[in-house]
Design goal:
The complex is a heterodimer. Chain A is an alpha+beta fold. Chain A has two domains: about 80 residues, Ubiquitin-like (UB roll) (Roll), CATH 3.10.20.740; about 150 residues, Alpha-Beta Plaits. Chain A is about 25% helix and about 15% strand. In chain A, the strands form three sheets. In chain A, strands 2-1-5-3-4 form a five-stranded mixed sheet, with helices on one face. A three-stranded antiparallel sheet of chain A has the order 6-7-10. A two-stranded antiparallel ribbon of chain A has the order 8-9. In chain A, strand 1 and strand 2 form a beta hairpin. In chain A, helix 2 runs antiparallel to helix 3. The longest helix of chain A is centred in the middle third of the chain and has 17 residues. By secondary structure, chain B is α/β, with parallel strands linked by helices. Chain B folds into seven domains: about 160 residues, 3-Layer(aba) Sandwich (Glutaredoxin), CATH 3.40.30.10; about 200 residues, Rossmann fold (3-Layer(aba) Sandwich), CATH 3.40.50.11540; about 70 residues, Ubiquitin-like (UB roll); about 100 residues, Up-down Bundle (de novo design (two linked rop proteins)); about 140 residues, Fumarate Reductase Iron-sulfur Protein, Chain B, domain 2, CATH 1.10.1060; about 170 residues, 3-Layer(bba) Sandwich (FAD/NAD(P)-binding domain), CATH 3.50.50.60; about 140 residues, FAD/NAD(P)-binding domain. Helices cover about 40% and strands about 15% of the residues of chain B. Chain B is built from 43 helices and 34 strands. In chain B, helix 18 runs antiparallel to helix 19. The chains are: A alpha+beta, B alpha/beta. At the A-B interface, helix 2 of A face helix 18, helix 19 and helix 20 of B.
Chain lengths: ~240, ~1050
């Protein structure tokens, strides 16, 4: 049986079970840690780097979504240093592709946008890349807009771990990484896609959306996926 | 061959192997690592094979790996019974017959012999070859090998890597045998921990502890992995280790397998290393055949096998979790740790990953014990590290030295320092994950902690040496370009952050940098370092952060002055010659105009870039020569002499008036601003010329009775006739510049006076105060200082000389004094403490002096001057030898204690000039630590507002064109300050001229200026070097390759 351990998050004493990650304990104790790639019910990927926290006694920052808690651990989730890094990571994401909220179907319901508002991001200091990226509308019900994708890989994981179809993966590397369906086929021609729509529901931005929505109209229900994952026992 | 199952079969194999290594006949081993074959070793090998066959010689021919000295490849080992092993270098196939002829007569071709080995310590065994060949140096007497200690490379280049018996002959697999017989894995782990062996992949974690984690795991299946996915640019030690000695790796892993309980080893090797892959495959097959891998190893009931996997070439797969992902058939992307591979690695099983070199250290530690191992290296880092030394050093190759050896020993002692005419600026350690370490920190010991303190890392051991031809901004950009393209793209900071950093750095190299870029780069770099998922991202900003820390001025030069002094950033330079010219003369333009026969235009082009074209045409240090791309074909274009011809043809002819008219026509309307220039030397004259053209009222104050400064008073008439200088000054006068002579600042007029009477003051009084050389006997009559001596000569009030004058120093002033002495009919000897190549004087001047009869005594430093009746009788000098390299990149002269007496009648001290510090301090101007007047690097403004300074005053004694460049920059800045606008660029004329580069460069040698016959010139003060003839100058202009012409589609250059 997993053991009960005690730790501190931002000074607050929390009890946790061994094997839990920092972000899980924080959420259970009402402490919010910003994150874009983490989602309860899916395996942790640790790629967005927004959930980095300070652990007392360590100079290195650790990702809250993958670091298991230890007895006596003291975690700081909010500091000047963390905030600077988080703001800069958001700036990098915003300037990497074309995030134009005013014309986005997810405007107002976007996790990236929400986080920027919450952390008080007002300016992007970096020059925008403005890449020319395609929009895949080949699927009868859904749209993949690469311009809005932040490569959080939630869709990849939900499709693989919950639906079991593994339609999505990330091809290429570095700045040229792209979400692909099957072996780089248009989504609509995918042999493995079951059209279940889980990927759309977990996507934090307007990259994966349902057709037929105008600006601001696309809302996501990712909690449903989490519940499903827990029910099926796919929760890691 | 049967399997080895017991000691007797083991020893039998060993004896057979020794018979191959030291046969009863000649054995020839050709170094055929990748570096050897790249240098033609295959042809040498087949030439030996043919020759041996044709002659029917009783000889063995084998191929080995690389012995480490890659610059000297192909290397060939010659063995004949009872004689030392001789290593020949740079062997060509046509020399093979000569070598064999000599060998039969026990003669070694001395010119080809690099070194000999009388006894070799294979660590696991000693091999004696015998003594002999007294004329050939021992291997560790060769500077490249001198400080090396070969533990990892113990067998490389000596044994045949394709023959397991030779490996066993030098003690191979004995450590494995010992471990299997002892049956005490815990003891071996303790030994490894005690040996302080640390991971050689760069992170430096204790190898013993890492293996212990695996040992303690109860899992049924454990894996060992060797990371041979070496991918740093410029690093190739793992490749050579495997190519030269693959069995050491297998033995190390088998030992690791036994002590941890792992039964399976995997070598993940770069697919781009075909030879290493090939040799490893052979080695694994042989080891299985001999019962050293597979089931029941050495009959001791231990099972362990090794599989080879070729990596697909992603740099990130050097990261352990990415490597495991790649082995499992997934995309090579790292995952967060924990869990660490020691808990959950390959296929979810406990796994230990080590670098190639770490495994190589296992057998020696088992054989000789931890105490022996810790004898080598520093307290925290034991043992040696193989470094691949590449870049701008004379000797490149693999250098294995104890950890903790200072960087300077790598660069200077093993590397042999910079190529001629260059100086080393920095070393990049650890490849794209490491950082640049500047020259003044070369005493840093190479170990994990010291390098980390400087923001660099040990990494896998790449060391790239950079010299003054390397632009540090471009180096930083290059490495970020590499890591950006090798980033897997998983985490945000590495994927997007490196892309942003590359965009910013690229902008800076194109001259589009902004002031805030540097701070932004630092912030971004820190964020990428602190928040990236894996080691690639965490270390990728190191090259940028260290370059910003140690070479910030280079970034600022790119951003503020739009200059790349190394001449690498193409967008910031017109051509290599223009970039190297302190005055940034448009050299290709005046060459082309002269070629087109447009003398007046050519002159205008020259004089508007350089107000003293005839003087500099004679005495400039011509840095352009060293950069000219024509050197790649034959010799550099003689640019200095062509502009001398252009200047003389106008200044000294009836075209003078017309030319003056063209210059005067450029003068802007009066601004009503008054500028005082203090000092009428080349710097002051240059500033006055441009300030007057810009419409300011200029008054030049000068302590001497005439203008020209050092050009008039320090340069002898035979180098620069006053008549030439007078014509140049005439133009400056005609522009309206006024002179006040015989007025010394501080004595006749104060800086406060100037400050109140003028809108701006430019100080350019140079370095007229002699550096003090405290020499007993200084006070004797007949001891002179160079500048007053030359000045007296210039004023035609020469000092009395006896029949033999000793000049002390190695600069241009020393040579000028010596040549003047010869012309006065006395004998001259120059005494210089360093060697000839280290002299700061222009080499042509040194040669000319020697031809005129000046004698040179190098490597001697004055000790005291011996007097007699108040005059000079002799000078005592101490012989010096060349010691360590100093910060100037030259070897420091060290006194040997051997004293020699040179009898003489006079001594001239030409040991440099200095700034008069006391005066400036009293005038309220700040002096730098090095004793120079402090000014802003770009604006040239001093600590006092509206007081600018330039020339030798802020740099220390330098040369004419360098000094003039400050006058030019000061004029630009003063004008901008006084008018609030920028007019300077408007002065530079534009011309229409041919813009086609020569398709087929003509083959024609460089024309040199003509020296008067020695017999005549040594007796006269007539100009010693006459100009090129017009047709020669024309041909010289035609030799220009026109580097200024770029493909307009790629280079949209608008140039100053």
């Amino acid at each position: 049986m997993s053991e009960q351990i005690t730790m501190r998050i931002d000074g607050q004493v929390c009890t946790a079970k061994e094997g839990q990650t920092i972000i899980e304990v924080a959420q259970a104790n009402g402490r919010y840690i910003p994150s874009l790639c983490h989602m309860p019910g899916l395996s942790a990927d640790g790629c967005c780097r927004l959930c980095l926290v300070e652990v007392t006694g360590l100079n290195r920052l650790l990702p809250a979504c993958t670091t298991p808690v230890r007895n006596g651990m003291s975690v700081v989730t909010d500091s000047e240093r963390l905030n600077q890094n988080r703001l800069m990571a958001l700036e990098l994401l915003f300037s990497e592709r074309n995030h134009i909220c005013a014309v986005c179907v997810s405007n107002g319901h976007c996790e990236l946008q929400g986080l920027a508002q919450q952390l008080g991001l007002t300016h992007i200091h970096f020059t925008y890349n403005y890449p020319k990226l395609p929009v895949d509308v080949s699927h009868p019900r859904f749209v993949l807009d690469h311009n809005r994708c932040i490569l959080c890989a939630r869709c990849v994981r939900v499709c693989d771990e919950v639906e079991g179809a593994h339609v999505w993966d990330i091809a290429g590397r570095g700045i040229n990484s792209m979400l692909v369906s099957d072996l780089q086929r248009p989504w609509g021609e995918s042999q493995s896609c079951t059209s279940c729509g889980k990927c759309v529901q977990v996507c934090p931005t307007g990259a994966l959306v349902e057709k037929g929505h105008a600006v601001e109209e696309m809302t996501k229900r990712n909690a449903v996926v989490t519940q499903l994952a827990i029910k099926r026992g796919t929760h890691p | 061959m049967t399997r080895i199952r017991d000691l007797s079969t083991f020893n039998a194999v060993r004896t057979t192997g020794l018979g191959k290594l030291r046969p009863h006949h000649v054995r020839i081993a050709v170094g055929m690592g990748t570096c050897g074959t790249g240098n033609g070793a295959e042809a040498v090998y087949s030439a030996f094979a043919d020759a041996i066959f044709q002659r029917g010689l009783d000889a063995t021919l084998v191929s080995t790996g690389c012995f480490g000295f890659c610059a000297e490849e192909p290397l060939v080992n010659l063995y004949s019974p009872g004689q030392p092993l001789v290593i020949l270098h740079r062997v060509r196939s046509e020399q093979v017959n000569q070598i064999l002829d000599g060998l039969l007569e026990k003669n070694i071709p001395e010119a080809l012999a690099l070194c000999k080995i009388e006894q070799w310590d294979h660590i696991t065994a000693q091999i004696d070859y015998g003594a002999g060949y007294p004329m050939v140096p021992l291997w560790n007497e060769v500077p490249f090998f001198q400080n090396q200690k070969k533990i990892v490379l113990r067998n490389c280049g000596i044994i045949n890597p394709d023959d397991i018996e030779e490996y066993i002959a030098v003690g191979g697999y004995q450590s494995l045998y010992k471990v299997l017989i002892d049956r005490m894995p815990e003891l071996v782990l303790e030994q490894l921990k005690a040996s302080k062996l640390r991971g050689r992949g760069g992170a430096g974690f204790s190898t013993g502890m890492k293996l212990e984690f695996l040992f303690k795991s109860n899992a049924a299946q454990k894996y060992l992995i060797c990371n041979a996915d070496e991918g740093d640019p410029g690093a190739y030690m793992n490749r050579n280790e495997i190519e030269g000695d693959p069995h050491s790796l297998l033995e190390g892993m088998a030992i690791g397998g036994y002590i941890t309980g792992a039964t399976k080893g995997i070598i993940y090797v770069r697919a781009e290393y075909p030879l290493a892959v090939n040799r490893l495959n052979k080695a694994i097959a042989q080891a299985r055949e001999y019962g050293l891998l597979g089931q029941d190893i050495l009959g001791r009931g231990f099972d362990f096998d090794i599989e080879l996997v070729e990596g697909a070439g992603a740099f990130v797969c050097g990261e352990e979790t990415a490597l495991i992902a790649s082995l499992e058939g997934r995309a090579g992307r790292p995952r967060p740790r924990p869990p660490f591979p020691a808990e959950k690695g390959l296929w979810g099983c406990p796994t230990d990953i080590n670098n190639v070199e770490t495994w190589y250290n296992l057998a020696p530690i088992v054989a000789r014990g931890p105490a022996w191992f810790t004898e080598t290296g520093s307290t925290t880092s034991a043992g040696t590290k193989v470094i691949s030394l590449v870049g701008k050093v004379r000797n490149t190759g693999l250098v294995e030295m104890p950890l903790g050896t200072p960087l300077s020993q790598y660069v200077y002692d093993a590397g042999g320092g910079a190529a001629d005419g260059h100086s080393i600026k920095a070393v990049q350690t650890g490849g794209p994950s490491g950082g640049c370490i500047p020259h003044d920190l070369f005493d840093t010991p190479v170990d994990y902690e010291s390098l980390a303190k400087l923001g660099s890392i040990m990494g896998s051991g790449g060391m790239v040496v950079m010299d003054d031809d390397n632009c540090m901004v471009d180096v930083a950009r290059y490495f970020v370009e590499f890591t950006r393209s090798e980033s897997c793209g998983k985490c945000t900071p590495c994927r997007v952050g490196l892309d942003k950093a590359l965009r910013t750095l690229t902008r800076i190299t194109k001259g589009e940098g902004r002031e805030e870029d540097l701070v932004e780069l630092e912030e971004l770099g820190r964020m990428i370092r602190d928040t990236s998922l894996c080691g690639l991202g965490q270390s990728a900003p190191n090259p940028v952060l260290t370059a910003l820390r140690h070479f910030r001025h280079e970034f600022e030069d790119h951003i503020r002055a739009k200059r790349c002094h190394a001449g690498v950033c193409l967008e910031l330079a017109l051509s290599p010659c223009e970039n190297s010219c302190p005055l940034h003369m448009n050299i290709p333009r005046f060459l082309q105009l002269y070629k087109e026969g447009r003398l007046a235009d050519a002159f205008e082009s020259v004089i508007m870039d350089n107000p003293l074209p005839a003087s500099t045409g004679r005495v400039c240090q011509h840095p352009c020569d060293n950069r000219c791309r024509r050197q790649g074909i034959d010799e550099s274009v003689n640019m200095r002499e062509v502009h001398r011809v252009i200047a003389d043809a106008v200044l000294l002819s009836d075209q003078f008036e017309e030319a003056v008219g063209r210059v005067l026509a450029k003068k802007r309307k009066a601004t009503g601003k008054k500028v005082a220039v203090v000092g009428a030397g080349p710097t002051g004259l240059t500033a006055a010329f441009y300030l007057a053209l810009l419409g300011h009222e200029v008054m030049v104050f000068e302590a001497h009775a005439d203008a020209g400064g050092m050009l008039r008073y320090a340069l002898p008439e035979y180098r620069l006739p006053n008549s030439v200088l007078d014509r140049e000054i005439e133009i400056i006068r005609r522009l309206g510049v006024k002179f006040t002579f015989n007025t010394a600042i501080g004595e006749d007029i104060t800086l406060n006076d100037l400050g109140s009477q003028y809108n701006a003051v430019f100080l350019s009084i140079g370095t007229w105060k002699e550096s003090q050389l405290y020499l007993p006997g200084n006070e004797l009559a007949g001891v002179f200082v160079a500048l007053p001596f030359l000045e007296a000569e210039a004023k035609a009030e020469p000092m009395q000389l006896g029949n033999h004058v000793v000049v002390i120093g190695g600069g241009n002033a020393a040579i000028d004094c010596a040549r003047t002495v010869v012309r006065r009919g006395s004998a001259a000897t120059v005494i210089y403490r360093r060697d000839r190549g280290d002299m700061p004087a222009i080499p042509e001047e040194v040669d000319a002096a020697e031809k005129e009869g000046v004698r040179f005594r190098f490597l001697a430093t004055p000790h005291r001057i011996i007097g007699e009746r108040g005059g000079v009788k002799a000078i005592e000098v101490t012989k010096t030898r060349l010691g360590e390299f100093d910060t100037s990149g030259r070897r420091r002269p060290v006194a040997t204690g051997e004293v020699q007496v040179v009898s003489c009648t006079n001594v001239i001290l030409a040991v440099g000039e200095d700034v008069d510090r006391d005066f400036y301090r009293s005038a309220g101007l700040t002096i730098t630590e090095s004793g120079m007047l402090q000014v802003d690097r770009y604006s040239l403004e001093s600590s006092r507002e509206n007081f600018y300074a330039g020339g030798d005053l802020i740099t220390g004694a330098s040369n004419v064109s360098n000094a003039m460049s400050y006058g030019k920059d000061a004029a630009r800045n003063i004008d901008a300050r006084l008018t609030g606008d920028s007019h300077f660029d408007g002065l530079i004329p534009t011309f229409q001229y041919d813009q086609t580069a020569p398709a087929e460069p003509s083959k024609s040698p460089r024309h040199h200026a003509h020296d008067l016959p020695v017999a005549i010139r040594a007796k006269s003060f007539e100009e010693a070097t006459t100009a090129l003839k017009p047709e020669e100058a024309f041909e010289e202009a035609c030799r220009c390759l026109r580097c200024d012409i770029r493909d307009s589609a790629h280079f949209a250059v608008s140039h100053r």
